[in-house]
Amino acid sequence: MLSHLKDLQFEAKPDGPDAAFARRLQEILGGKWGEMTVAHQYLHQGWSCRLPGRYRDLLLGVGTEELGHVEMIATMITRLLENAPLMLEQAAEDNPMVTAGYAGANPAHLVHGGGAALPVDSAGVPWTGAYVTASGNLLADFQLNVTAEAQGRLQVARLFQMTDDPGVKQLLRFLLARDTMHQNLWLAAIEQLREDGLAQMPVPEAFPDGSPRAHAPEPLLPPGDPRLYGTPALEVDPVQSPLS
Amino acid sequence: MLSHLKDLQFEAKPDGPDAAFARRLQEILGGKWGEMTVAHQYLHQGWSCRLPGRYRDLLLGVGTEELGHVEMIATMITRLLENAPLMLEQAAEDNPMVTAGYAGANPAHLVHGGGAALPVDSAGVPWTGAYVTASGNLLADFQLNVTAEAQGRLQVARLFQMTDDPGVKQLLRFLLARDTMHQNLWLAAIEQLREDGLAQMPVPEAFPDGSPRAHAPEPLLPPGDPRLYGTPALEVDPVQSPLS
Amino acid sequence: MLSHLKDLQFEAKPDGPDAAFARRLQEILGGKWGEMTVAHQYLHQGWSCRLPGRYRDLLLGVGTEELGHVEMIATMITRLLENAPLMLEQAAEDNPMVTAGYAGANPAHLVHGGGAALPVDSAGVPWTGAYVTASGNLLADFQLNVTAEAQGRLQVARLFQMTDDPGVKQLLRFLLARDTMHQNLWLAAIEQLREDGLAQMPVPEAFPDGSPRAHAPEPLLPPGDPRLYGTPALEVDPVQSPLS
Amino acid sequence: MLSHLKDLQFEAKPDGPDAAFARRLQEILGGKWGEMTVAHQYLHQGWSCRLPGRYRDLLLGVGTEELGHVEMIATMITRLLENAPLMLEQAAEDNPMVTAGYAGANPAHLVHGGGAALPVDSAGVPWTGAYVTASGNLLADFQLNVTAEAQGRLQVARLFQMTDDPGVKQLLRFLLARDTMHQNLWLAAIEQLREDGLAQMPVPEAFPDGSPRAHAPEPLLPPGDPRLYGTPALEVDPVQSPLS
Amino acid sequence: MLSHLKDLQFEAKPDGPDAAFARRLQEILGGKWGEMTVAHQYLHQGWSCRLPGRYRDLLLGVGTEELGHVEMIATMITRLLENAPLMLEQAAEDNPMVTAGYAGANPAHLVHGGGAALPVDSAGVPWTGAYVTASGNLLADFQLNVTAEAQGRLQVARLFQMTDDPGVKQLLRFLLARDTMHQNLWLAAIEQLREDGLAQMPVPEAFPDGSPRAHAPEPLLPPGDPRLYGTPALEVDPVQSPLS
Amino acid sequence: MLSHLKDLQFEAKPDGPDAAFARRLQEILGGKWGEMTVAHQYLHQGWSCRLPGRYRDLLLGVGTEELGHVEMIATMITRLLENAPLMLEQAAEDNPMVTAGYAGANPAHLVHGGGAALPVDSAGVPWTGAYVTASGNLLADFQLNVTAEAQGRLQVARLFQMTDDPGVKQLLRFLLARDTMHQNLWLAAIEQLREDGLAQMPVPEAFPDGSPRAHAPEPLLPPGDPRLYGTPALEVDPVQSPLS
């Protein structure tokens, strides 16, 4: 069960509007490594965790915090979309900022969302449940979570270099600090798994490697079922062919 | 069975080209609430309608009209793409309209479509059959249809504010008027359903609500099948853990 | 900001495993009208709501409750997947329940999810952010929310007819009761909007309908830009053609 | 503009229900090479055709006929879904036909569609606008249309081998005959294009091939922009590395 | 089995950076008719080819060459992304080339890819396996391959018109020449299939066309299963209805 | 540049057909963590690698090997599809293996692929380029690669438990051994990066964490642009509302 508190974890207010940056910021909301991905990934890992206690609590706790990050970024994007230039004619008024704001924006922000954030990435492609992995193997998943925080931190750091707006930069710096903390939490959880004797590398360690003989000749397939109307088999002489 | 007439329902001709607006207009052709969605939604609802007569006729009639709207919008988009700026170098000629037209366009309109409309939305994401709902329950579906016309009308009204081209504005005004008429048709159909004694709120009314006891403790999952290589169960003491 | 409580809103425990029903139940978790859709739809509508107070609070409150429903259904699916038949050979043991459980399951539940719920629908197609609409117009969105609860309630009622498991039926009955309550909440919110003088039909009412002249002749397109390598124009005589 | 006629082009009635075959039949409704693809492909090619007369008429005429095929197949699928087994328990009654009908069905047909066709393929994946190509070059597109009819005819012929139901087989035979006719129409249109002097192979013939020098050494990339936080450059000696 | 050689088939080096053109070039890497599609299509057709020898060898040989084209285009895109403008503020410096480069770029190239190519199209939509067809019928597939080279050649020729960069134009000219050669190879393979007596038009020729009677009255559907909660049947009089 | 060798890395031949297992095996060909993902991920990471030498060589070498794994698995799937039951009527012959083989198969394998592998996952959802990450930061990407091998190894180990076919089991054992080797290679590469002084945790280490003040009050949004037709602002008294 979840509950919602009105306050935000951190103030998310830009100094001014910027529709083109609003589009870019969508990458960390609804992109492959954005907050929607980590929120749902950690929650699903928690919901299917068969070890009650600290591992499950950690997953559900961090997952829920990430939902609050979605909220902060959505609020920021909506604010960046204030006063977005709606018409090409505005772009003719010789202000390159307006031109770029018009042409670099995601039109769906305005036409579909009415000036608000959408669950899509920076190209406008919708977020998909395929981004979520909860494999039931905690070592594999904690490693993935370390990775997710690393990729996420990388994207936030890049976005930090793409704006001069102090309010936006403060939010990004806050998100970076949280990502670092979470990265360390997952690394500690991997360490704990090892101490608890629950998992080792490679994953899954319970499956012993064999040493099968490698290399085999070209595979030859039999003729197919005629009811599938594939090309019938015929002995052809490759030497005479113009194709060879 | 359908037949095609050469004429359009309404003249769809812009006063001048505008590749950036062509991209935006795609939202009402191939977006979630665009004409492709309502056309296929109403047709599917009609094809699966188990009541011959007025409900079925209404669905198939309006659905077919919406296919004609796809045609009009596709024609308009193709005309707006005439003389689209093809090269960045053209954008250097100090005309912000050209710069915005180059940068704000959907490149696939030119490279893939050869200067014509595509079945995609304003971000270039392809239309998908997942946008269509035909549930077999007419009240639920008529309500959805009212909603679809409202969301569609909203998007058309926004696009009306995003251009000064009189020809485009006339087309949008025509589409708005038709959306209003359809919205009223679906509201009348809901009224008729009630008069015919066929459906009430909530949907489906045939299912009586009970009053189950709410609240339950934290769910505990049993250990998983070892053949799935999840993390094995182990009694751990959460007190001693650095994670808690 | 959100917080997570360990308890569930309702006990979600089946009397026995059923991998085929687990796959079907995914429709109301990750399908178009499932709990992920309504949760994110209401939250996005709340995050972008420009009216502080009751409308915003309502949206964020119900949206957060729906996240708890995702949790309950995910837990139920994971429990239904216990002891799922892993091999075709098991299906040969002349128990049609096992045969159907093997063949009617979603293999990704086992191979990818390790025996747990996934954010996908009953066909295994991942949930997508395209299912979410937050238009910024409360009347349009509240109508959509009524619709979403109606479609959702319909699906839950159908699933209720597809199982004899008392535990599963209890959960479905609980979800049905909540959907009814939410349907009524959105209807009341529409009424309130009208009382507050904030919105009328059609949506958006602020845009006046005109009455444009309908009907236009077949559209003729000019020859295209030769740099796009379309078929060149040529005056042809349709009478002599074998195509006409 | 399109209009709808109540009659079908051909009687589409199965001798009995078969939910598993209903799922398979979806491939030719909403699959990559199904009727939705050819309908929209031909219509888009017609809407963007810059040659008024026979080519445009042919495209719009055949495209509209294909929409009628969608209607016939949708009607057939809905009829095949009558009396679909809803519960696993029914599968226990020792009738392998029922077991296979339960497990081999697409659950979304029942839970989402209420027992009717959906715009999806045989795996349940929604149809997408990405299946449509209208390039603006008639020779390229007529070739693609020949191909589309060939792939479609292949799939219909395979489905013909997958059922004994005489009513279904008659519909499939009708579709096969229409596909053959359309295949021949597109071949004739290619011939006509050549006679009209409008296009030759390769496509686009207007672009002359050169003969550039092939082969180049391994590409070396410069160090990246430090603001993107890639791995920095460092002179390393590959000889000493455990990786080489 | 495949092996990688460090050298490229052709030198892929632009004279200068151009982030907007980098986005456009993605169409022939990860678009519907791009190199990823033909590479995987030919390889899958080869892997499932039941005729050992020239047909299989041809498919695997050309498919592997296309993978090398993906490599060349990816390298070119990465080079075009050097020094991409990261901030809107740079666009304010009154250089329309920079404005267009900022606004016309795909932000995911920078935020997600760190300044490198992605497996997406020119709108940023990810490549999908649905673009690949390997039907098992060589005539149908060789025709599709001719088509794929024609559509691909068309797109490369259009991109050639969208840049003045000599290095980029040389790469495009090289790709055009290879596409022409492949188009001719597939045409020769079709000829060979005929000479070998393996396939004729229409595809599949083995299925004889019948001549079924066309035209049927409006289809009437029976009332649905009440457990699916569709609208119940009722005899209604269409004459009195406000809908008709 | 790549070249193709006719031989396979390992013999991929089942002892008998099994259409249901063929569908399951697709997960490691075209699923999120399947061979197509790792092949393209490593190749893209190599193509954009700015450090010539061992890192680039390693990425391109392993990526190319994974393409050979796609080939082996595709060949195995095609062989498992031999003699697949095409009709429900066959399922009536009282052999549960046939019933499960009919109902548990992916129909697209037969109708679309003509009895061969497809680039899709075990639910039939097409592989997508969104599964590939090449961030330009080698430490982040090597960690992801360790993860990818762990998730992949997990899935192969699970599939090993889902079949008794010795030939299939040998192939899976071979793939497991290669995954283990690759997992170790990426771990060694991470070690090497550290020794070379190129990267540390967290990723990107070059960005210093700050310590921003957390917690902020509920965000209030200003009224929206009236041209977007959102709900207008109005001072409402939440106390009197039936919603609160």
Descriptive notes:
The structure is a homohexamer. By secondary structure, chain A is mainly alpha-helical. Chain A has nine helices and one strand, in the order βααααααααα. In chain A, helix 1 runs antiparallel to helix 4, helix 3 packs antiparallel against helix 4 and helix 8 runs antiparallel to helix 9. Chain A is flat.
Question: Which labels suit this protein?
Answer:
244 residues; mainly alpha; 1% strand; homohexamer
Helix and strand layout, with pairings?
The structure is a homohexamer of 244-residue chains.
Chain A: E1 2-4, H1 19-25, H2 27-30, H3 35-47, H4 54-80, H5 88-91, H6 96-103, H7 107-111, H8 138-160, H9 166-195
Categorize the overall geometry of chain A.
Answer: flat
Q: Report the average pLDDT across residues of chain A.
A: 90
What's the end-to-end separation of chain A, in Å? 66 Å
Oligomer: homohexamer
- Radius of gyration of chain A (CA) equals 25 Å
Helix and strand element order of chain A: EHHHHHHHHH
Which ranges of chain A are low-confidence, i.e. pLDDT below 50, for 5 or more consecutive residues? none
**β-strand number of chain A:** 1
- Quickly give the structural class of chain A: mainly alpha
Strand content of chain A: under 5%
Chain pair forming the biggest interface: A-F, 75 and 75 residues
Number of discrete helical segments of chain A? 9
Largest sheet of chain A: none
| Fraction of residues in H or I helices of chain A | 40-55%
